[in-house]
Amino acid sequence: MFARGIKRKCFDGEDEVDGSLAGFKAIPSYNLQRQSLLDMSLVKLQLCHMLVEPNLCRSVLIANTVRQIQEEMTQDGTWQIINAQSTGQTSLDRLVSTDILCRSSKEQGEGKFISGYSSFSTDFEETRSQDISELSTVTSVQTSRNMQNLWEMGSPQDNKGNFQKSLDQIFETLENKNPNSVEDLFSDVDTSYYDLDTVLTGMMGNTKMGHCEVLENFSSQATTNSSSNCKTELNEIDHIVEILVES
Amino acid sequence: MKCFSRYLPYIFRPTNTILSSSCHTEADIISTVEFNPTGELLATGDKGGRVVIFQREQESKNQPHRRGEYNVYSTFQSHEPEFDYLKSLEIEEKINKIRWIPQQNAAYFLLSTNDKTVKLWKVSERDKRPEGYNLKDEDGRLRDPCTITTLRVPAFRPMDLMVEATPRRVFSNAHTYHINSISVNSDYETYMSADDLRINLWNLEITNRSFNIVDIKPANMEELTEVITAAEFHPHHCNTFVYSSSKGTIRLCDMRSSALCDQHAKFFEEPEDPSNRSFFSEIISSISDVKFSHSGKYIMTRDYLTIKVWDLNMENRPVETYQVHDYLRSKLCSLYENDCIFDKFECVWNGSDSVIMTGSYNNFFRMFDRNTKRDVTLEASRENSKPRAILKPRKVCVGGKRRKDEISVDSLDFSKKILHTAWHPSENIITVAATNNLYIFQDKVN
């Protein structure tokens, strides 16, 4: 469902809903999928850049995908919305680096998902940020405990103001051979991806669930809800967030 | 060490040989296969840095069906794991490519490469050995001078046939990135090695010097958006070579025009179909393999979902496009998530350039007849490969009702993939590497 949906063309066909809702539903689910793809790519990229000598072809292709998504999001203004809602930074690159790159992917997925609806309720905004901050803390603690030196290059605990790791810098580090001990932990991207993913997402109990599936759940939630009933919808979302936090 | 179990070989009315290690470890995974120019020998390289060479059984009158069987001829450790102390980096021993040098004397020569180092190996037979040395005994130990009382003339005596592999040249320290291709030039004197960003030209005799012929590394690595994925020399014109990129383009270069071929002579690119555009467009258009036809008139490229055949005289679009596994188009997200989308499938021509072959998932491989436009999906598996049985064409069902004998897209096993295949240079004998198993299939023997 998601895979097919990634093409806008297919989307239009898939979201066969009655007129008034069509626009509302189609755009968020597309955005969601794009967001999840972005998150997935950023996690992959982060892992690439932790390796001393990543598969350059793979890294470049992922990086180009990120650039492409970034470009499209900039065009349709999604970046700006995120930008305004996040810590108030203006630089896109910095946004990529601080808010997405260092946060866990699924967390980010939630955040972005919710951001689509954020205009409905400010209360909810607050709940969200609370949830997110809790999540962040949990993730940071786990991360720091599990693999301290892994984050030497970009720790989420670092002062965000000083944190300047831009996407471009990641590309740069494709070149820099950083003699870190990380290679011991990640001698192979393929296998380590999921390991780190587990740690990064902090969803130990739910590791089986891939980005796509999470997203599918989200989108199905989104489509079953009606825009006329924002309250229920938000509760639903709240519930999903809770589930994710708990798991 | 490998323990080979072997079944009788025999392809399309196939024959098959399964040469596999029963003790399967990561190191046993076959990473390249290549026939020599006569087809008499077949070399495989694996993740453990070993090269195994198979030799074709000689024709015998009383057992004509045995023709086509390949037996182990020689096994040697080509590359060892290394450590680059300056970069604090482990260099894998995995053999990325093997290329045979056309035979010029009794010995066989091949080039094998891992990520960084290319080696020239000599494989030769010995059926005589010198005997009767004065200072050494039969086992090679020095004799006590007191016991030497007579002077002897050493002589060659026949012995059991022995196949020796000796490293003749080691071409190292020329690649910063991972070598993905090597290609022997038609002058038989030079070869090239391509990594992600550069291509070097070597003389087969000279190891301490190479010429950089392509360099696409941007001064600022932040600007890197494209890498070299494969490269090959023209089969007849020693000045011409092609290389493919991760953006789905192919560049043909002419070394006569300049020493550094950063400027291409021809640029093959197909305009993107807007109706198929997605975020994965670039990834799936990345070329994983490029091969000149034997005639040198065409080039074939493999991207994630298709094989394209290009006429050297037409740069704006391929003359033929074949769908390898279009049913995966709906699965690209999961394939991206599990990294399968980055798998590098190779492709090969048959001897007469009329059929092309490439691998897929679920141990399936595909053949396309360029003249009749017919195609077939075959499976390499132990169960389906009874000695001299005919390989049954397989079908993947796309949506709707699944018929008997069809396999649905959702039940394909993405861990079983056929990345490496080879086609005998003149006969219908093919070989397919499925993880640690090597299958050899032969056309129906009349």
TrEMBL record, chain A:
GO terms for cellular component: nucleus. The keyword Cell cycle applies. Pfam families: SERTA (PF06031). Residues 30-77 form the SERTA domain. GO terms for biological process: cell division. It comes from the Eukaryota. Keywords: Cell cycle, Cell division. This is Cell division cycle-associated protein 4. The lineage of its organism: Eukaryota, Metazoa, Chordata, Craniata, Vertebrata. The gene is CDCA4.
From TrEMBL, chain B:
The keyword Isomerase does not apply. Keywords: Repeat, WD repeat. The keyword Repeat applies. GO terms for molecular function: protein phosphatase regulator activity. GO terms for cellular component: protein phosphatase type 2A complex. Belongs to the phosphatase 2A regulatory subunit B family. This is Serine/threonine-protein phosphatase 2A 55 kDa regulatory subunit B. It comes from Microcaecilia unicolor.
